[in-house]
Amino acid sequence: MKIDEVIDLLKVNGFKEKKFIKKRVIYNQKERKQETQEFNILEFEFVFVNEVETELYIVEEKDSLFTYEEIEEFNIKIAAFLTFLGNSPIKYNVNLVLLCPLNLKNLDEEDEREVRYILGHERNKYNCRKIFLDTANQNFEEELSILPSLPINVQIENLNIGYGGLLEQVKLALGEDLYQELNKFDEEIDIRSIVKHLNVKGEGNE
User: Helix (H, G, I), strand (E, B), or coil: what is residue 22?
Assistant: First the structure.
C-alpha cells in the first residue's frame, strides 16, 4: 500500500494524526434529559496536521481510479468541516491526496480521456487542493515529490557544482517528466525559488 509511504513522509516532516472532535447537546427523549454527545467533524480515516496546525492533509487510497461521485462526496465532507473552522489557518490549507493507479503511459484513447477527466479535479481548488498520486508509477518517489509544503531531499557529494550541476540534481530529484512540466511555465527556472523547497545535504552541510 503506497499510502504507508505518504503517511511516513508526513510524519517525518512533523505532521501528526488528528481527529477533530466537537461536542453537541442532544435531547434524550427516553430519559427526558439533555446529554452531551461527541462527534467527528472530519470523517476520514487518515488526517494529519502540522505542528502549529496551519496545514492539513487527508489521504485516501484506492486500487482503481476514483470516480466523480467519490470525489464529490469527499468535497461535501470537507465543505461541512470548513464551516466549523472560523478563521483558522487550516481552513485555507487543506490538501486531499488521492492515491490510485493512473497508468498514464499505458492507456488507450478512451481510458486516457477518463483519467484526464478525473484529473481535472486538481484544477478545482475550492474547499481544498486535490492532489492525485499515481500508485502505478514504478518510481513512486517522483509522485511524493509533488506534495506541497514538503521538502525534497537532494543528496549532493560536491556542493561546488555550480548552477548547471544543481539543476541536474533538481531534475534527478523531481524526475524528468515533472521537471519538464515545471519548466513549461517559465523560460528560465528561478533556482532560488526551487532551493527553498529542497533539503540539500552534502559534505559540511549535514
Answer: strand
Alpha carbon 48 to its chain's center: 10
pTM (two decimals): 0.70
76: its cell numbers:
461535501
Euclidean distance between CA atoms 87 and 128, whole angstroms: 15
CB contact set of 198 (below 8 Å; sequence gap of 6+)? 151, 152, 153, 154, 170, 173
pLDDT at 200: 45
Q: pLDDT for 100-118, tens place per residue?
A: 999 877 777 778 888 888 8
Cell numbers at residue 99, please? 492515491
4-24 pLDDT tens trace:
999 999 999 999 999 999 988
Do 49 and 42 form a contact (C-beta atoms < 8 A)? no
How far apart are alpha carbons 171 and 166 in whole angstroms? 9
> What's the CA angle centered on 134, arms 130 and 137, to 5 degrees?
155
**What are the beta bridge partners of residue 40?**
21
Quick one: which of 73, 82, 84 has its CA closest to 24? 84
Q: CA 49 to CA 203: how far, in whole Å?
A: 33
